[in-house]
Amino acid sequence: MVTKLIQKGKLVFPDATRHKIYMSADMQDFISGLLVKEPTKRLGYKSRSDILDHPWFKNVNWESLKKKKIKAPYFPECT
Questions:
Q1: Which of 7, 8, 47, 55 is in the most buried spot, having the most CB atoms within 10 Å?
Q2: So where are the chain's domains?
């Protein structure tokens, strides 16, 4: 059942109001690109720069991140 949903199902994002989850259009586009069913059309298939240059990461300074000079913008709570 789950396998068929993954292979043939349509990607649906949660309702932001109902589930209290906000996803920007760039975030939804990024996730959608990673989940394209046809591997050759998937985001990052051609080059990792397709991922790094995606608009969702527009404010990420990759060099600073690589050198561990910046902190993560979000830390999940552990329960």
A1: 55
A2: 2-58
